[in-house]
Request: fold
Amino acid sequence: MLTDSTAANTETSGQPRLERLRQGQNFIQQLSIDCVIVGYEANKLKVLVPNLDVGEDLFALPSGFIRQEEGIEGAARRIIADRTGITDFYLHQFGVYGTAGRTNRPYFDRLIGGALERQGLDPGVTDELQWITRRFVSIGYYALVDLTTVSPTKTPVDTAIEWTEVNALPTLIMDHNEMIADALATIRLQFDEGRLAFYLLPAQFTMKEVKKLYETVFQRPFARNNFQKKILDLDALERVSKKFTGASHRAPYLYRFPRRWGEY
Reply:
């Protein structure tokens, strides 16, 4: 919840967005959304992780609040779009987190104090932001994206936002590591039924690329012949007439996933 996309840059009116957080204006208080944004590159699954600006490494998931006039999924889509620059992604709610002591109070003073100073706001605003330090219930969403189309975007409370391999994650704040683990477990459970692989790949891909992705997600090898039948039996792909050319060996077919583009 500390990395709210509503605190990013400035509104069209020129007023700092951090002002909108004062007294929880227009937000459903004590309810937030945390997003596990998953991409795939060079046979590695990666998660988008901001580093908060507190004078030392402090990592968190992209997060945000829900406006009074929007639905929960709409809020999640807004938060993810603000952090990635894209609107084409697969989104799924995977969990709710709300232990009795769940608060970001240990990080608040360092984080907000720095943001106020950079934006030239009255330090008294800190008192009006105390609602952010209360106990929060967070709804977890995961998003599957084509990593090559994403432009990671910082907010004023970040020093950086970078893709991080899921096997090399740092310690994140609160229960965010647990959230990532839960999101990945859910993705594996839904991978076939949801045809999830095809949201992580480019618009066109080979069967070999699909196989490599499956092996990365499930961390085990798949037999080539059986795998191709398994994927084609999903009845979700369209073979593209264009093939790779220029190689001496037989060129592989390219495939596409029509559902991703709203085609059925």
In short: The mean pLDDT is 84. The two ends are 37 Å apart (CA to CA).
